[in-house]
């Protein structure tokens, strides 16, 4: 099934879920689809903001209500959780605003915040504003660079060497991700 048919079938709901589950790549793709006229740009940004906001509110609530449960206690022992808590202690409001922009801390941060004494009202307000700004930035990136992406994809259709380059970049990314995952598991 092609991306165009997925969007035609599920539209902004797919972008909402992608922003909640995956993050930047899905939102940038939403901007690209808006550039192609398959989605409205304001609709794509709103769906991305809502997906991100609601997912983070859910993770915050999970951390708040299950802070003493085995899964959260185990998560507290990870390096990412420790980094999130250290940043939160140093710059609480700034961290609440910026965690969604920090690689490796996006999902663990709202859980970490939920285990602290930061009020739900404060998290909700800052998370709301940050989700909107994040969604506008990343859908905007997809929208603004839509022509370049379309040109690059058009070249891929005609040049087999570019497929090898793309394949090499994807393979390198997977190797780096596997090494990062392995080191993280070894450090636990």
TrEMBL record:
Coiled coil: none annotated. Pfam families: VTT_dom. Residues 23-143 form the VTT domain. Keywords: Membrane, Transmembrane, Transmembrane helix. InterPro entries: DedA_domain, VTT_dom. The chain crosses the membrane at residues 41-62, 124-146, 162-182. This is DedA family protein. It comes from the Bacteria. The keyword Membrane applies. The keyword Membrane applies.
């Amino acid at each position: 099934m092609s991306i165009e048919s997925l969007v035609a079938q599920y539209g902004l709901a797919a972008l909402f879920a992608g922003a909640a589950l995956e993050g930047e790549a899905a939102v940038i793709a939403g901007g690209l689809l808006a550039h192609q006229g398959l989605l409205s740009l304001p609709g794509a940004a709103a769906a991305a903001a809502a997906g991100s906001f609601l997912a983070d509110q859910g993770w915050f609530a999970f951390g708040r209500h299950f802070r003493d449960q085995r899964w959260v206690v185990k998560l507290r022992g990870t390096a990412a959780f420790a980094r999130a808590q250290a940043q939160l202690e140093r710059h609480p409001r700034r961290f609440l605003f910026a965690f969604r922009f920090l690689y490796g801390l996006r999902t663990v941060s709202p859980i970490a915040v939920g285990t602290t004494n930061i009020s739900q009202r404060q998290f909700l307000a800052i998370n709301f504003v940050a989700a909107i700004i994040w969604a506008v930035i990343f859908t905007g990136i997809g929208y603004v660079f839509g022509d370049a992406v379309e040109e690059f994809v058009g070249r891929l259709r005609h040049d087999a060497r570019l497929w090898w380059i793309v394949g090499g970049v994807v393979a390198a990314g997977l190797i780096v991700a596997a090494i990062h995952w392995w080191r993280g598991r070894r450090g636990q």
